[in-house]
Design brief:
The protein has 107 residues and is mostly helical. Helix content is 70%, strand content 0%. It has helices at residues 6-17, 23-32, 40-67, 77-101. Helix 1 packs across helix 3 (40-67) and helix 3 (40-67) packs antiparallel against helix 4 (77-101). The longest helix has 28 residues, at 40-67. It starts with 5 loop residues before the first helix and ends in a 6-residue tail after the last helix.
Length: 107
């Protein structure tokens, strides 16, 4: 959790574990505890934002390897293993957001 819009934290949790969570149950518990309800549009927006943040983070490790700040070649996994599926997921979410909420989307 961090200071800021609650959508950031919820999107982080959703992106990390929605396939293993009963998301409606999570949201019921969140609202029962006083959490701010999010619209589908807000959740999708913050999911995209959090993936963007993850992609920036995936850039940092390998760049530090090449500057000599760290020595673990395992950081190259960020480039070859993690980045492609995250980029694909982000592209899919942006397409979904545009289809649902972009210009010309049904209200």
């Amino acid at each position: 959790a961090q200071i800021g819009h609650p959508g950031q934290d919820l999107a982080y949790v959703y992106n990390a574990g929605h396939t293993d969570l009963d998301w409606p149950r999570v949201m019921r518990a969140y609202r029962a505890a006083g959490g701010t309800p999010l619209s589908d549009q807000e959740l999708l927006y913050f999911r995209i934002m959090m993936l963007g943040r993850l992609l920036v983070t995936l850039n940092i490790g390998p760049s530090r390897l090449f500057t000599g700040e760290v020595r673990s070649v395992r950081l190259l996994a960020a480039e070859t293993v993690f980045r492609p599926p995250v980029l694909k997921q982000m592209a899919d979410l942006i397409e979904s957001y545009t289809r649902q909420f972009g210009p010309g989307a049904s209200a």
